[in-house]
Amino acid sequence: MQTSPSGAPSEERLEHKENLNVLTSTQAIIREALEKLGYSEAMYELFKEPLRMITVRIPVRMDDGSVRVFTGYRAQHNDAVGPTKGGIRFHPDVTEDEVKALSIWMSLKAGIVDLPYGGAKGGIVVNPAELSFRELERLSRGYVRAISQIVGPNKDIPAPDVATNSQIMAWMLDEYSRIREHDSPGFITGKPLVLGGSQVRETATARGVTIVLREAARKVGIPVEGARVVIQGFGNAGSYLAKFMHDAGAKVIGISDVYGGLYDENGLDIDSLLEKRDSFGMVTRLFKNTITNQELLELDTDILIPAAVENQITAHNAPNIKAKILVEAANGPTTWEATQILTERGVLIVPDVLASAGGVTVSYFEWVQNNQGYYWTEEEVMQKLEQTLVKAFHNVVRMAETRGVNMRLAAYMVGVRKMAEAVRYRGWV
Ligand code: NAD
């Protein structure tokens, strides 16, 4: 770091140092959103951290007889609107701050799509690829035993996130039902259909991104059919998105995974890539002519969809982004500074808390179906998802236009408003 003669970091350098901490950068936008809506400092103090954050140690008997102890977290951001809701992530880089930020984003998503929930998130520090199937089962069950006192169908409802799936949800449901000694399908969402899962849940995030992307494209005047699309990440979200974009007649010219990207200006053969991809979303290692993820993000394209990890578009590369629409399927892919640079350059940003809200929306539909014991068809779920997301997209656009703010701040303002009202009515602040 450049220092001043006194040895302290120079102000000029500090001014240009970007905040890449997802928690503190989220807090700064929440503060601005609340200020713009006229709420007090006390409301910010309440929202800047989760109401509850629990850290658990989970002992797991490994296949070789040894015991490994894993660290897990569950953050419940705010339950003024209703029970909290949010996924569980299995990843070696999970941190307390990340889980807290993700729980805040879930509150915002619930507010944006108008669900009767607050946000939550869970995570376990683990590389699931290193565990056997049975070790993964024991870890999943151990996590539920560790957090069972603070979760439940009317308290806090988990779901899948990065590297967790319907099988893991099934083990977690089974463990919870054993502890409570009754069947409770509404405890968790993202379950297999036979255990009370919902139609469309598996593809819900990508479906949701596709719906808001279509609305954004209409607004900018770019027909999806024939549009050039670049997608970073080829996992659950990215691969389904590539398929839906391809099926909608768009030309997917670039995709990537953690090892690099593939590019073809005439459009990639998505069906063949989907066949070749492994269950962790890896495919590019099978090819020789790859590009880097940075090159991929800067490709000449109409639509760019980050669907991988955080902090991919920063002040450093934002000036080189050529897309006209940026739709964030991933959580936190673009920094606040990059948001401002892109907005000034006229790029329409559909922020993460809006674009990736399809998953929690269909999770809500799953929970409603569990509560009523009556299940909807795929068409019914799709129709409800469509209605919910189209309305949410236009609410955020309206907020951005009437208040003269960028799309991310507008989404935060829409997202935080219902929760703040609920807090006020309850008399907490
Ligand atoms: P995943 O683990 O299935 O896939 C991740 C993909 O990103 C893989 O192709 C991986 O190779 C790639 N990747 C990982 N690190 C990378 C890096 N540094 N650079 C480039 N590529 C990298 O995960 P997913 O479920 O598809 O989630 C992706 C993003 O979407 C995450 O931010 C997640 O929070 C968000 N999201 C997912 C869902 C969902 O339902 N799956 C819902 C909401 C938001």
TrEMBL record:
<feature type="site" description="Important for catalysis">
    <location>
        <position position="161"/>
    </location>
</feature>
<dbReference type="InterPro" id="IPR033922">
    <property type="entry name" value="NAD_bind_Glu_DH"/>
</dbReference>
<keyword id="KW-0560">Oxidoreductase</keyword>
<feature type="binding site">
    <location>
        <position position="85"/>
    </location>
    <ligand>
        <name>substrate</name>
    </ligand>
</feature>
<dbReference type="InterPro" id="IPR036291">
    <property type="entry name" value="NAD(P)-bd_dom_sf"/>
</dbReference>
<dbReference type="Pfam" id="PF02812">
    <property type="entry name" value="ELFV_dehydrog_N"/>
</dbReference>
<dbReference type="GO" id="GO:0004352">
    <property type="term" value="F:glutamate dehydrogenase (NAD+) activity"/>
</dbReference>
<comment type="similarity">
    <text>Belongs to the Glu/Leu/Phe/Val dehydrogenases family.</text>
</comment>
<dbReference type="InterPro" id="IPR046346">
    <property type="entry name" value="Aminoacid_DH-like_N_sf"/>
</dbReference>
<dbReference type="Pfam" id="PF00208">
    <property type="entry name" value="ELFV_dehydrog"/>
</dbReference>
<keyword id="KW-0520">NAD</keyword>
<feature type="binding site">
    <location>
        <position position="236"/>
    </location>
    <ligand>
        <name>NAD(+)</name>
    </ligand>
</feature>
<dbReference type="InterPro" id="IPR006096">
    <property type="entry name" value="Glu/Leu/Phe/Val/Trp_DH_C"/>
</dbReference>
<dbReference type="InterPro" id="IPR006095">
    <property type="entry name" value="Glu/Leu/Phe/Val/Trp_DH"/>
</dbReference>
<feature type="binding site">
    <location>
        <position position="109"/>
    </location>
    <ligand>
        <name>substrate</name>
    </ligand>
</feature>
<dbReference type="InterPro" id="IPR006097">
    <property type="entry name" value="Glu/Leu/Phe/Val/Trp_DH_dimer"/>
</dbReference>
<dbReference type="InterPro" id="IPR033524">
    <property type="entry name" value="Glu/Leu/Phe/Val_DH_AS"/>
</dbReference>
<dbReference type="GO" id="GO:0006538">
    <property type="term" value="P:L-glutamate catabolic process"/>
</dbReference>
<feature type="active site" description="Proton donor">
    <location>
        <position position="121"/>
    </location>
</feature>
<feature type="domain" description="Glutamate/phenylalanine/leucine/valine/L-tryptophan dehydrogenase C-terminal">
    <location>
        <begin position="198"/>
        <end position="427"/>
    </location>
</feature>
<dbReference type="InterPro" id="IPR014362">
    <property type="entry name" value="Glu_DH"/>
</dbReference>
<feature type="binding site">
    <location>
        <position position="363"/>
    </location>
    <ligand>
        <name>substrate</name>
    </ligand>
</feature>
<dbReference type="GO" id="GO:0000166">
    <property type="term" value="F:nucleotide binding"/>
</dbReference>
<feature type="binding site">
    <location>
        <position position="205"/>
    </location>
    <ligand>
        <name>NAD(+)</name>
    </ligand>
</feature>
<keyword id="KW-0547">Nucleotide-binding</keyword>
<protein>
    <recommendedName>
        <fullName>Glutamate dehydrogenase</fullName>
    </recommendedName>
</protein>
